Automatic annotation (TrEMBL):
Residues 255-319 form the Protein FecR C-terminal domain. This is Uncharacterized protein. Signal peptide: none annotated. Residues 119-212 form the FecR protein domain. It comes from Sphingobacterium corticibacter. Keywords: Membrane, Transmembrane, Transmembrane helix. GO terms for molecular function: sigma factor antagonist activity. It holds the Pfam family FecR_C. The chain crosses the membrane at residues 75-95.
Amino acid sequence: MDLKKLKELLNKHQSGQATEAERQLIETWYASFSDNQEQGAFENSEQKTRARERIWSGIEMSPQPIPQRGFTQRYLVHFISAAAVLLVLGMSIAIKQRMFSSNSSSIAQQASVPDFRSSTGRKERKMLVLPDGTQIWLNANSTMEVLANYGDSVRRVHLSGEAFFDVAHQPSKPFIVELDDLSVRVLGTAFNINSYARLQTIHVSVDRGAVQVEKNGVPLEKLSLGQSLVFAKDQGTYALQETANQGTWRDGKVVLAQASFEEMAQVIQNMHGVTVKKPANSKQTYSYDLTLYADRPLSENMEKICSIHRLKYRRVGDELMLY
């Protein structure tokens, strides 16, 4: 199959316009590769390294601002399609990548070494598409690492911050998200994880399918559609909740339910790039039940926040001081 024809078929496949025959043609083309065909594909380690860099260079989408209300799935598909073209053009290289770590003794040493890392700053988010088709939305102030040997027998990533995952179904290769205190194991599902280092809790919520939350390799709970697990870092305990989709931040909407002051402040920092400070010398416990929108002015969101506990605020540089 020539390159031009392949690109045309891939674009049609991503947009849902491919016929059954065209979809079958793509699947047949992909299945035509085998490990045996790729033996001796690289002459030296430098070529292998360049090939790996080409694969991962297609993963990261351009940084995007925090999405506004009305941000649609159609807009996301535009980025997914662009990424898919880049990735499949290097698909034969991706298959060759299986040869990179043939030495079993080196695999264990490299298992926790990042093969790819992507980070976001304030008021920024990114969408990533991994070579297996897994889609990841990375929220502001977050870092995602794809660990070495991804896809050999397990697909392992590390998250600091918040991300929404739509994992490609591969029963023989579990997908594991490692956090500082927990890990989340799935086969193919969609779920959200909020695990910012500055917060005292970790939230795992399921949008589709099921996940298993583990601590030090020991299963804690299996979560299904509409369920969430809230883990308290300092106490090492957790609670289950029935919640709505926690991934609505992708559309610029965050629903806070009995949220702590720190959780509220993290949302404001993600949306507006400023830091909210508690009233000086205050020992009060603050709780927040409200909905915040990224496309609303900072002043409007802060008025809603302050009204809950009858407070005011003043701005000093990038800090908002409540009083």
